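Input record, target 12 of the design panel.
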């Protein structure tokens, strides 16, 4: 049987975050320096969840030192390391290398400097999770079959998403604008975050995102008014 979510997170939750950072990225770490994928993980995690770094270091090292045996393989109660382009015989050594880099970053305070914009697919989604949910969920290649136009999709998101999430989306959009991206970078951003259709005619990606921020952020909370006789 597969492992229950709570037990999975206890053993492999943060390890999975590290490995996920390598989606579409080479495992090009060396003893002298972490590769781009691990650097992106370190940069974002130092900023958002610094306490998780020690958990990642421990889970990586434990997995490398105690790979799943035949029983756990048969039961499915283990973390299957996805194909990262390394021979299977080198995976354990690579995991130890990642753990060493994370430990060094913690012990020596080696925090990757801020980047002008996310540098990997994982980092885009880690930094802009709700924007990724919005673009990937409402503007996939199926969008023309589900909605009459882009405005209809935006209205559907606003009407179905919790207001906490819509507020988060607006905040992430303004964080994206604060990066001062060129238009080509805005096009890259929406692509990395899951948008599979073009913006509306006559809009660039950046201009359309600004319009979305205005419309999603345009809702007004409804407050009750006391009776005049109250």
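The sequence produced for target 12 reads:
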């Amino acid at each position: 049987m597969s492992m229950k979510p709570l037990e999975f997170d206890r053993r492999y939750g943060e390890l999975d975050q590290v490995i996920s950072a390598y989606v579409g990225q080479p495992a090009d770490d060396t003893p002298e320096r972490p590769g781009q994928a691990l650097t992106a993980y370190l940069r974002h995690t130092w900023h958002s969840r610094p306490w998780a770094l020690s958990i990642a270091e421990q889970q990586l090292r434990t997995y490398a030192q105690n790979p799943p045996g035949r029983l756990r393989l048969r039961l499915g109660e283990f973390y299957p390391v996805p194909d990262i382009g390394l021979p299977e015989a080198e995976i354990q050594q690579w995991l130890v290398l990642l753990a060493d880099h994370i430990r060094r970053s913690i012990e020596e305070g080696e925090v990757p400097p801020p980047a002008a914009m996310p540098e990997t697919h994982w980092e885009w989604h880690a930094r802009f999770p709700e924007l990724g949910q919005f673009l990937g969920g409402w503007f996939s290649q199926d969008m023309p079959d589900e909605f009459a136009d882009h405005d209809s999709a935006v209205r559907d998101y606003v009407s179905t998403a919790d207001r906490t999430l819509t507020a988060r989306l607006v905040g992430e959009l303004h964080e994206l604008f604060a990066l001062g991206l060129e238009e080509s970078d805005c096009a890259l951003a929406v692509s990395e975050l899951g948008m599979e259709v073009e913006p509306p005619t006559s809009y660039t990606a950046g201009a359309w995102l600004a319009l979305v921020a205005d419309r999603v952020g345009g809702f007004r909370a409804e407050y009750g008014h006391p009776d005049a006789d109250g």
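The radius of gyration is 22 Å.
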